[in-house]
């Protein structure tokens, strides 16, 4: 065991901090893309003649490909090499973005979005696992994951600002073209400076049944939630997708427990610390995705903010996330156990969300929305940083890619669930409010417009109450399941089988 530990603690890679710049740049590009297209969608829909019924596919095509192929992408990164997967993912993402920006019709746009998702599924787990294998010192690792966590948490809000600027002052096509310089700089830089540690690849044969079952199961799950948002939870196809997903993913677990070289070794999923990260982070993302949606509509529709002003209105959340990740999470991670950052972090975010349940039509931005965003950002930034680091906790370096893919998968599925679930709750509350005030709404004039606005805000507040409960659940799960000590403490990591105990040595070395 000591020999293994020693062999896994080589001299630090002198180019690791340069590599972090390019890895962070690629992560920013992927996270930006999740929100930047939302701002541009109305303009793109008009230009390309996409129907109202099909416009959701501009978002859904990306989500399905990204969420469905993440595990496959993580396994390819383990087998093929993370540097290779990272660079190919960047080049492919850039080409798909160019295709989207040059789209001359609905089919070309949807195809480009699906390709972006597919290459993003190769790129995202490769980026996170590169950090896991390149940063071996506990304090440096904490700083690196602090930067990565801040980008992962705040990049979506940056996308709203950038998307607003590009759409308002240039053209919606630039929300796609802007990815190209990001990708080229990151790919060239990564190719020149990244030196992947030797012996960290997993050259086992590819588990084809696992690839098919996991991909189709995750696609069915993500599509089920996205369809529920537009067609309802009792829609026949929605229900069919959920049933199919349950059957396919159950079959996937069965196959993984039997095959010699599984796509997702169950030891990656079932170790309590990693499992706690995947579950708590997935739940937290449900609440965050819903919040972005509601606040965007509240600020633009109810308060009358422009797209650019709306983007800037999210800056306090970005500032909070950066401070939480780099000043709180990174500084404390080597001093306190991760659960004491994640649990309180999610609870502070829940407190910020609780403030937003008081939203009204005339609510003051400085008095209510700004402090709520600061609390949300600080809490999520503090929690995201150790969560990203723990995604590869105790895992064999050869499995780092698929472990990284799992944390991305939990976020992607959480985002799909959050958008559908919270939007449905908000729509139901809005409908109920309008029903109760039907006579006033029928009167017309300014009074009717005020009732419409109040109904929307009532819906947002109702959904945000659910988001508060979800964040509290995330906090409880993190405090309960995650029991590892601070990185580098040298104590036992967690209970597990003999095989699992062997896998814990790299974490102590890291």
From TrEMBL:
<dbReference type="InterPro" id="IPR011701">
    <property type="entry name" value="MFS"/>
</dbReference>
<dbReference type="InterPro" id="IPR004638">
    <property type="entry name" value="EmrB-like"/>
</dbReference>
<feature type="transmembrane region" description="Helical">
    <location>
        <begin position="237"/>
        <end position="255"/>
    </location>
</feature>
<feature type="transmembrane region" description="Helical">
    <location>
        <begin position="56"/>
        <end position="73"/>
    </location>
</feature>
<feature type="transmembrane region" description="Helical">
    <location>
        <begin position="311"/>
        <end position="328"/>
    </location>
</feature>
<feature type="transmembrane region" description="Helical">
    <location>
        <begin position="85"/>
        <end position="103"/>
    </location>
</feature>
<keyword id="KW-0046">Antibiotic resistance</keyword>
<feature type="transmembrane region" description="Helical">
    <location>
        <begin position="206"/>
        <end position="225"/>
    </location>
</feature>
<feature type="transmembrane region" description="Helical">
    <location>
        <begin position="340"/>
        <end position="359"/>
    </location>
</feature>
<feature type="transmembrane region" description="Helical">
    <location>
        <begin position="276"/>
        <end position="299"/>
    </location>
</feature>
<keyword id="KW-0813">Transport</keyword>
<feature type="transmembrane region" description="Helical">
    <location>
        <begin position="365"/>
        <end position="384"/>
    </location>
</feature>
<protein>
    <submittedName>
        <fullName>MFS transporter</fullName>
    </submittedName>
</protein>
<keyword id="KW-0472">Membrane</keyword>
<keyword id="KW-1133">Transmembrane helix</keyword>
<feature type="transmembrane region" description="Helical">
    <location>
        <begin position="463"/>
        <end position="482"/>
    </location>
</feature>
<dbReference type="InterPro" id="IPR020846">
    <property type="entry name" value="MFS_dom"/>
</dbReference>
<keyword id="KW-0812">Transmembrane</keyword>
<feature type="transmembrane region" description="Helical">
    <location>
        <begin position="20"/>
        <end position="41"/>
    </location>
</feature>
<dbReference type="InterPro" id="IPR036259">
    <property type="entry name" value="MFS_trans_sf"/>
</dbReference>
<feature type="transmembrane region" description="Helical">
    <location>
        <begin position="172"/>
        <end position="194"/>
    </location>
</feature>
<feature type="transmembrane region" description="Helical">
    <location>
        <begin position="115"/>
        <end position="135"/>
    </location>
</feature>
<feature type="domain" description="Major facilitator superfamily (MFS) profile">
    <location>
        <begin position="19"/>
        <end position="486"/>
    </location>
</feature>
<feature type="transmembrane region" description="Helical">
    <location>
        <begin position="147"/>
        <end position="166"/>
    </location>
</feature>
<dbReference type="Pfam" id="PF07690">
    <property type="entry name" value="MFS_1"/>
</dbReference>
<dbReference type="InterPro" id="IPR005829">
    <property type="entry name" value="Sugar_transporter_CS"/>
</dbReference>
<keyword id="KW-1003">Cell membrane</keyword>
